[in-house]
Structure formats: structure tokens, C-alpha cells
Amino acid sequence: MANGQVVVNDDLSIANKSNFQASFAAASKGYTSKTYWWEVRATYSNSQAKTAIKQLQDAADHEQFLLASLFWLPTVAGIGGITVAYCQKLGKTMKSHNKGKGVILDMTWALT
Asked: What is the residue-averaged pLDDT of the chain?
């Protein structure tokens, strides 16, 4: 980047030097991550994975409660339903792969 805030490393990972990224990373202490041009790889320890799974389950529960009160808005309910399904699926997948050693989660930029 022209202002020197983004650096591409030899392994094609991206180092973001902006203040926004630094403050965001400090606020989200739930895992370590590495950014590539095609994905973000998040690495969770066992305890971090358990915390993230609990947060995903809580988010799905809260979203379901909200959807129950907004059932008369089909568009909002549809988007909320996708969010609930995503949180539940991601939480279950992380739980099934966390065998006490943590989880590595690869998230691509493409929506498929």
C-alpha cells in the first residue's frame, strides 16, 4: 500500500500496520490470526476454542429470541435464520474438531 500500512510477506501473508487493525486485534484477544490475500487463518487454543464455541451458541440463542419477535418481517427473519444456522454449524464443527488441542479455522474471503 502506498502509505506503508500493508506489507505482503514472502509466504503471501499480509501484515496490516494500520492503527485500526492493531486496536481491533487488541480488543479481540480470543485467538491468534494470520491474514492472506485469500483467507484469514484463526488459531484457537483449547480454552479459546471452548470460549468461542460458547459465544457462538449464545449468539445463536439470542438471534433466535430476536427472530421470534420479528417473524412478521420475512426478509429480516430470513437473514437472521441464516445467521443462526451459521453460528450453530460453526460452533458444532469447532466443537467436534477440538480434541483438547485447539482448532485452526480457515475463512476465505469468497462467499460461496
From this structure: 80
